[in-house]
Amino acid sequence: MLKQSSSGCDPLRTLSSWTTILSSAMSNGSATPEGSDATMTKAGATRRLPFRLAGLLVLIGLLLGTAYVTSYFARLPESNCSTSPISEAWAEDHAYKATLLEKQCNKWETIFYSVRVDAYSPPLRRAWFTIEQVEDDERPVAPVVRWEMRRALLIEMQTRTLSGTIQRHVGDDLTIVRRFQAREPNAFPNN
Fold it and tell me: Distance (Å, rounded) from C-alpha 91 to C-alpha 86?
């Protein structure tokens, strides 16, 4: 006969219980040891269920929060801005319309101006437009937009030191002239 081990566990009894477990698993398809309470296992699993669901909800919340923050930062440059027309001017023959647009960002902290020119002249199959960004350093003074000649649009911008004129030919017969008028032309010496 075998002696009982110091841990208080009989090796033959342990071997017989494992044999019983394996035989019942082969016959029933379940591996529940004899004398164990199956409801205790289910109760333990039921107690862990709320923690698993809470963990899953936290994970879903983190994923949704990450997606929202990512989309917010992805559209940041334009998300805090709104653009509105200030004025419009038509050419003499109504072939072109120039619209002065003001884009304010961060609750009027930053203001940008641009001029949109729409073409409406007749043999066009489709109307087209172009946008001129206004680079002036005397904000918030809006540029002056007017038609100087029949097909020449003049955009006058106030600057501190820069003066001069830039002409750009757009389309077939449109010329956009940007004139920079310096408030202090001698503030930056030309040596």
Answer: 17
